[in-house]
TrEMBL record:
UniProt keyword annotation of Endoplasmic reticulum present: no
TM stretches of this protein: 12-33, 61-80, 87-106, 112-132, 144-163, 191-209, 230-253, 290-308, 314-336
Stated name of the protein: Branched-chain amino acid transport system / permease component
Compartment list: Cell membrane
Molecular function (Gene Ontology), one example: transmembrane transporter activity
PANTHER family: ABC TRANSPORTER, PERMEASE PROTEIN, GUANOSINE ABC TRANSPORTER PERMEASE PROTEIN NUPP
An example Gene Ontology CC term for this record: plasma membrane
Keyword Transmembrane helix: yes
Pfam short name (any one): BPD_transp_2
Keyword terms of this UniProt record: Cell membrane, Membrane, Transmembrane, Transmembrane helix
Membrane topology: Multi-pass membrane protein
Length: 360
């Protein structure tokens, strides 16, 4: 086995072990705080599969975080940490509702225009902090983080003063026309045709990042920017493209959520899908091909925690504990570093011994 494959295999093992440790710690916490811990754990583990509706909840959550995680994989591929995905989800959902309400289109034109406007605008906005980073060396993480709140408050202004419905007793937009609402795929759930769009996005992003020259150039920049520059790669263009695609995917994720599960836009805060996208991308090792598995797992524990909260005396915030431990262990470079080094040395010695044996 080559060292590259060994490192990939060890990365998978490390991630699985981190998840296992986090789950065990969560179960220990449940044992300490719950009066009926076994019932709570059972609700957590089996709840998402107990009914069609609950399994539908799992898939419903999977759809938007899949888009944001794919966006994170693309943006982080160039070795720069932009966290604009959270604001892009929010603003993408708002723009999709705005276009659907105001355009006068129905059917496929309404849906297509809503998705394209949401994705394109969020893609352009996501390029702003990257441009400032490349041209003026502004901190990308801080810039993208602050831009999330610019998008939030700009969106709230549009909601309150442009598309708010004065006839409802809450802060919400006018009703989204039925012709712009995504159709459901399975009876008894709110799983919409956005699931098909998410699957298509997964395939396209995987092909782009792993099978094309553009993806190779982005990954080359992420691994060694100086080498990429001296190899003739246009650093500026590739970094800007990665930001646009990441923002586009997150914006489409927000549009899919609003047009699929809501009849009005009424988010008053950032929804959290972007932050979960970063978590999912981290678990997936920032590889698009592993995003579906990681997204399903996070959707599973989120749904399980919500069911446990409703059927037992354990709060759903337990999932935050699980996520925190997973990120700490996965991101900790020292976690199992000694074991990894020993395996690499052993692999090198075994590879060196093979030619000697063949000569003998």
């Amino acid at each position: 086995m080559s060292n590259k494959k060994l490192l990939q295999f060890f990365g998978v093992i490390k991630t699985m072990l981190a998840i296992l440790i986090a789950m065990v710690l969560a179960f220990l916490f449940i044992m300490m705080v719950s009066k009926e811990p076994l019932a709570a754990i059972k609700s957590f583990l089996t709840g998402p599969f107990s009914t069609v509706r609950r399994f539908g909840n799992l898939i419903e959550y999977f759809i938007p975080v899949c888009f944001t995680a794919l966006g994170v994989c693309v943006m982080f591929s160039v070795g720069m940490s932009s966290v604009i995905g959270e604001g892009s989800v929010f603003f993408g959902g708002l723009l999709a509702a705005w276009v659907a309400i105001s355009s006068g289109f129905t059917g496929m034109p309404a849906k297509l225009s809503s998705f394209l406007v949401a994705g394109a605008v969020c893609g352009v906005v996501a390029m702003i902090p990257m441009y400032l980073k490349l041209k003026f060396d502004a901190d990308l993480f801080v810039g993208s983080l602050m831009l999330n709140y610019v998008l939030l408050y700009l969106g709230l202004y549009i909601l309150n003063y442009v598309i708010r419905d004065p006839d409802v007793g809450m802060t919400a937009s006018y009703a989204i026309p039925s012709g712009a609402v995504l159709g459901t795929l399975f009876k008894g759930t709110k799983v919409t045709s956005a699931l098909i769009l998410a699957i298509v996005a997964m395939v396209l992003v995987y092909v782009l990042m792993d099978k094309t020259h553009i993806g190779y150039k982005m990954r080359l920049i992420g691994s060694n920017m100086k080498f990429a520059k001296y190899s003739g790669v246009n650093i500026f263009a590739m970094c800007m493209l990665s930001s646009f695609l990441g923002g586009f995917l997150s914006g489409v994720g927000g549009a899919a959520e609003i047009l699929g599960r809501h009849n009005r836009f009424q988010w008053m805060a950032l929804p959290g899908f972007g932050w979960d996208g970063i978590l999912i991308a981290t678990i997936a090792g920032f590889k698009p091909k592993f995003v579906p598995i990681a997204a399903l797992f996070i959707a599973y524990i989120k749904t399980g925690a919500d069911i446990m909260n409703r059927t037992s005396d354990v709060a759903s915030e337990l999932v935050v504990v699980i996520q925190a431990f997973m990120i700490l262990l996965i991101a900790a470079k020292g976690f199992l570093a000694g074991t990894q080094q020993k395996l690499i040395v052993k692999n090198i010695k075994a590879a060196a011994a093979q030619p000697a044996e063949s000569e003998a």
